[in-house]
Write a structure and sequence with these properties.
10 helices; 0% strand; 231 residues; mainly alpha
């Protein structure tokens, strides 16, 4: 990929439109020596992870609630359809009416992820319940105990895959919201400034920093969840 990038940059011959990988590497090295990089990363990470954790927790709780009560399943099913039909930009504009910019970014991340998390868990719970319905019928137990001893072990792959999807989607949503909401601090803010200054090297550098951050937190989330399940 770097080779193709270098060839394209050489063929285009315009560093404003497409700088070479070495130019971007030099820019990133300069960014690494500035406090602005770490402040922006910290701000975006806090917003993205807060939204992801909220969506993950609330989505899982609502999925379990929907298994207990059919009315809740009907309600959340239609709520997810409604939320998915609203444009992402509309969420940001509406949230800015009611909240601060930082709160709006977190809420946008939550709203964009909730439906994905809820549907993933609810479909998995329904599939597990269908497979285990004979055992549950023969050996009736309180539903809380069934959730803890039957569903949670079976849901381990869903937890891992959903956590990975949540992190990547949350960071993308957070950066998009930071750009549209003109957040005072964050990766999106710096990407917007780089675009306005026609500084493609800085813009690509911020994108690479974002990708590296997502990889790091994706790895950490996988390790933490595996440790929790093992203990």
């Amino acid at each position: 990929m770097i080779g193709v990038w270098q060839i394209a940059a050489f063929a285009l011959g315009n560093p404003i439109l497409l700088p070479s990988p070495w130019t971007v590497a030099e820019t990133m090295a300069a960014q690494a020596g500035q406090p602005k990089l770490y402040e922006a990363l910290a701000a975006t990470c806090i917003r993205a992870l807060t939204g992801a954790v909220l969506a993950f927790g609330v989505g899982f709780a609502c999925a379990v609630l929907s298994w207990f009560f059919k009315t809740a399943a009907w309600f959340f099913k239609n709520l997810c359809v409604l939320m998915q039909s609203v444009p992402n930009v509309a969420y940001i504009i509406l949230m800015l009416f009611w909240m601060s910019r930082d709160q709006a970014v977190v809420m946008v991340c939550f709203l964009l992820l909730f439906g994905v998390v809820y549907q993933s868990f609810f479909r998995a719970i329904e599939a597990i319940a269908s497979r285990a319905k004979d055992i549950i019928f023969l050996y009736p137990q309180p539903k809380i105990r069934i959730v803890r001893q039957v569903f949670l072990p079976e849901l381990r792959p869903v937890f891992l895959s959903c956590a990975s999807n949540c992190i990547s989607m949350s960071f993308k949503a957070a950066v998009m919201a930071e750009i549209l909401a003109s957040a005072a601090l964050g990766i999106g803010r710096n990407m917007q400034q780089a675009r306005q200054n026609l500084d493609a090297a800085s813009l690509i550098g911020w994108v690479i920093w974002l990708v590296l951050t997502v990889f790091l937190f994706d790895w950490l989330a996988g390790r933490i969840l595996k440790w929790l399940f093992d203990h």
